[in-house]
Amino acid sequence: MKKSIVLILSLCLLLTACGSKEKDKEKTAEESKTTVTQEAPKETPKETPKETSKDDASKDAAKPSDDLKTKKAEAEGFSFEYPESWQAYDLSELNQPMIKAAYADPAPKVAFADNVNVTSAPGNSGVTAKAIADLTVTQYESGALGDAMKDFKKISYDDKDKNSGVLIGEYTQGQSGIKVVLTQYIITGSPNMYTLSISYTKESYDNGGKEMAQKMLDSFTINKK
């Protein structure tokens, strides 16, 4: 059971990373108009309130908050916020029913698009989030994902409420040599387990991505029936 869950996390990461790179190769105006065929979560615009300031210097300092504007994705079983400028990924290209939602930067500056995705799989209340995270780290460090993930290093793991946890790590995408920071929010339980996976280039993460990743984590909600 645990190994299959780790495989789900790894497969999701691998497919998203490859898909993001492919989207980067297609930098055309037509790309942004591609029809999304995923059973799209409903999107509700939501803006982060901007602080007002009396002097221009303070206003300039507050401008990065524009990058923290979000939209809300609502799907069967869960909802979360993601960057307003990101676009839904065509899940039909992945052919993986475990991936329930995916969004990515449509205009990346490098050969990797910052992205977020959500997977869902049958859960097991007897498996802890930490156990899943430990197995995941072991697989990531083993090099099993080839060029998609090299030299993975665990940065941190923190247990959260209701048998959930957040794993953060850094790796190099072998095909491009780009350093990526991966944040995975693992929510175990029954009947379903969810994983919110957020990938930012190291440069993006250090320049606002860390704050946005936290917003996405804080916003993730499992909808109870």
Structure report:
Helix 1 packs across helix 3 (129-142). With 225 residues, this protein is of the alpha+beta class. A hairpin with a 4-residue loop joins strand 8 and strand 9 (178-187). Helices cover 28% and strands 34% of the residues. The two termini are 25 Å apart.
Keywords:
seven-stranded antiparallel beta sheet; single chain; globular; four-stranded antiparallel beta sheet; 28% helix; 34% strand; 225 residues; 4 helices; alpha+beta
Reading side by side through the largest sheet, how are the strands ordered? 4-5-6-10-9-8-7
List the quaternary state of the chains.
Answer: single chain
DSSP, total strands: 11
End-to-end span in angstroms?
25 Å
Order of helices and strands: HEHEEEEEHEEEEHE
Number of helices: 4
Shape: globular
Report the β-strand fraction as a percent range.
25-35%
Structural class: alpha+beta
Spans of 5+ residues with little confidence (pLDDT < 50)?
A: 19-39, 56-64
Biggest β-sheet: count, sense, barrel?
7 strands, antiparallel
The averaged pLDDT comes out at 79
Helix content: 25-40%
As a whole number of angstroms, the C-alpha radius of gyration is 17 Å
